[in-house]
Structure formats: C-alpha cells, structure tokens
C-alpha cells in the first residue's frame, strides 16, 4: 500500500523507501524491548496499546498529512 499511496500523493520513490525503512526499524526496536514492556505494562495492556498505536498510525496515514507526519505515523505503526 505504501508505493500506491506514494504514487497517489506524488511522493518520490526515495521517501517511500525511507517510510518503509522507518516502519521496519521501529518494528525491530519494539521487539528488542518486548520483554521489558510486558513486564512493565502486562500482556493485555501492551496488546491494547499496540493495537491502538497501529490503528492511530493507519488513521493518520489515511489523512492528507505532510511528509514528517507520515514518518511519525509509520513509526507508530511499526512500533505497534
């Protein structure tokens, strides 16, 4: 969906690649801290927060937002 979104909004291929990279790095970071987050928040709360963060990222990405906001949204999606 990201390449299609980039084509629709006129975002260059480099930024689309960087958006995907940002999401991947955030996903790796969340997996590094996964055990600590479960210990701190509990499994049910962490699941709820992760789903809410991912949903918020998708909702922001669906809006016509500037590129820096899109980077924050995909980072939120990746971490979630």
Provide tags for this entry.
single chain; 80 residues; mainly alpha
How would you sum up this structure, described in words?
By secondary structure, this protein is an all-alpha fold. 86% of the residues lie in helices and 0% in strands. It has five helices and no strands. Helix 3 (34-41) packs across helix 4.
Concise synopsis of the structure shown:
The chain is mainly alpha-helical. Helices cover about 85% and strands about 0% of the residues.
Q: What is the secondary structure topology, with strand pairs?
A:
Blueprint: H1 2-9, H2 13-32, H3 34-41, H4 43-62, H5 67-79
Helix pairs in contact: 2-5, 3-4, 4-5
Overall mean pLDDT stands at 92
Unreliable residue runs: none
Tell me the distance between the termini. 18 Å
- Give the percentage of residues in beta strands: under 5%
The tally of beta strands, per DSSP, is: 0
Structural class label: mainly alpha
Question: Helical amount among residues, as a percent range?
Answer: over 70%
Bulk shape:
elongated
Q: Biggest sheet, open or closed, and with what strands and sense? A: none
Cα-atom Rg, whole angstroms? Answer: 14 Å
Number of helices: 5
What's the SSE pattern? HHHHH
């Amino acid at each position: 969906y990201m390449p299609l979104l980039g084509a629709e909004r006129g975002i260059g291929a480099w930024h689309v690649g960087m958006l995907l990279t940002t999401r991947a790095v955030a996903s790796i970071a969340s997996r590094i801290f996964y055990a600590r987050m479960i210990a701190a928040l509990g499994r049910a709360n962490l699941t709820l927060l992760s789903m809410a963060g991912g949903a918020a990222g998708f909702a922001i990405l669906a809006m016509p937002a500037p590129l820096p906001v899109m980077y924050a949204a995909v980072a939120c999606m990746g971490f979630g």
